[in-house]
Design a protein that fits this description.
Helices cover 41% and strands 21% of the residues. By secondary structure, it is an alpha/beta fold. Strands 1, 2, 3, 4, 5, 6, 7, 8 and 9 form a 9-stranded mixed sheet that branches. The longest helix has 20 residues. Bound molecules: adenosine-5'-triphosphate (ATP) and magnesium ion.
């Protein structure tokens, strides 16, 4: 029945000369997401509106789901589009639409007509009145009423080159279209948190690149594949992700050899940040994104975060900073990453993790420990950067 969708977007950040950037990014992301759906679609902007039109047969549910995964959309209105064949024909379509869509007719409505094309023989007020009468004629006996102040449904009729009819609005995810707020480098591990963190940064329009620290043979190929799978799931919302796989084994072994084991996690994280920043600089990313949340594990106490953060020269965005684990799990389930995140593959930190890691690291002590790495660490970091494998995930 529906051959098109009207896409409603939030007005914040869409003012003035930014508007077309916002709309263009939105159209691009919608086109991107519809590539997953069978059928041909056109996505266009017209007078402050964005429309999706199906140019062939397509699966309604799949298309709706794809559009719903695009940030920047507050509402999706499935539309019927007809050619102008006179008012009586239009009324038939509108009545048919209401009949199909609302099995229970004990509802109130208001007709809301707009004319973008002024040569239509009736003006907006006249369309409202006459269409209201036609609807009442058809359904008044079944309990349908007009309410011009707080109707249950608005019957929208837009007279353009074609005529658009819609009365439903399906909620979108809000946020801003990816591509409107710069790029950031997501530290993506195989856990529950970092995919959610990436999703949340992207919700504000940030393009996502990712880095995964892989430590073969301590972490298996399967653990790497899991991270690729997670990146793919996140890319449904963010668009394609350049995933940098860093071979971290030699750096980890070297830290393990030289530094106190209770400080390993902190020192490893500091090297992850340093390498992530070097990659970010290369790709034009302006910030790091991590899945850290205050107090979740020993390396995420405020003291630990402070010491890890010392090496940061870029802003580190931590969207989950104040979330409880259960809240993170709920989002993870809602966005579809949870099942993959809980697959039991070791990550590189668990292999080297100490029995009693420091929870209140001292910055000076950590500096001293890192000095013990001075002989080889620069060379190891350089090699790690030179041997990065970049996988485009989409
Ligand atoms: P997650 O659920 O995201 O794995 P976590 O609760 O296991 O997080 P940590 O292992 O302390 O917590 O990691 C904190 C953050 O550091 C992660 O959310 C991620 O952003 C980053 N991180 C940890 N390990 C890696 C890794 N191997 N590769 C890339 N980033 C990592
Ligand atoms: Mg982890």
């Amino acid at each position: 029945m529906y051959k098109a969708f009207l896409i409603k977007y939030g007005e914040i950040g869409v003012k003035g000369k930014n508007r077309h950037l916002f709309e263009d990014a939105l159209c691009k992301q919608i086109r991107n997401s519809l590539k997953r759906v069978e059928g041909d679609f056109s996505v266009t902007k017209e007078n402050g509106r964005v429309y999706v039109e199906a140019l062939s047969d397509y699966d309604y549910e799949d298309a709706l789901k794809a559009i719903q995964s695009v940030f920047g959309i507050v509402g999706i209105c499935p539309m019927i589009q007809v050619e102008d064949e006179g008012f009586d024909e239009l009324a038939k379509v509108v009545v048919g639409h209401i009949k199909e869509t609302y099995p229970d007719k004990k509802i109130t409505f208001k007709v809301d007509a707009r004319r973008a094309r002024k040569n239509y023989p009736l003006n907006s007020m006249e369309i409202n009145m006459k269409m209201g009468e036609k609807i009442l004629e058809a359904f008044e006996e079944q309990g349908m009423r007009v309410d011009v102040h707080h109707p249950d449904i608005f019957v929208n009729i837009e007279i353009r080159s074609k005529i658009n009819i819609y009365s439903q609005e399906i909620k979108g995810m809000g946020g801003m279209p990816v591509g409107t707020n710069g790029k950031a480098m997501l530290l993506l591990s195989g856990g529950i948190d970092s995919p959610v963190a990436g999703y949340m940064a992207a919700k504000r329009g940030v393009t996502i690149d990712a880095v995964y620290f892989h430590a073969p043979p301590y972490t298996s190929e399967r653990a790497k594949q899991k991270v690729i799978d997670l990146a793919r799931l996140v890319s449904r919302y963010t668009g394609s992700i350049a995933l940098n796989v860093v071979n971290f084994t030699d750096i980890q072994l070297y830290i393990y050899e030289k530094c106190p084991h209770d400080e390993l996690t902190i020192i490893m994280k500091r090297f992850m940040y340093r390498i992530a920043q070097a990659l970010a600089e290369k790709s034009g990313a302006l910030a790091l994104v991590t899945g850290e949340s205050i107090g979740q594990v020993s390396s995420q106490t405020l003291q630990s975060l402070a010491v890890i953060n010392e090496v940061a020269v870029m802003p580190v965005i931590r969207p989950l900073v104040s979330f409880d684990k259960q809240e993170i799990i709920d989002i993870s389930e809602a966005i579809g990453t949870y099942e993959t995140s809980i697959q039991p593959f070791e990550d590189c930190c668990t292999t080297f993790v100490a029995k009693h890691p420091v929870t209140k690291p001292n910055s000076k002590v950590i500096h001293k420990s890192e000095e013990k790495l001075s002989e080889k660490i620069d060379e190891l970091v350089k090699t790690a950067l030179e041997t990065v494998e970049t996988i485009i995930v989409e």
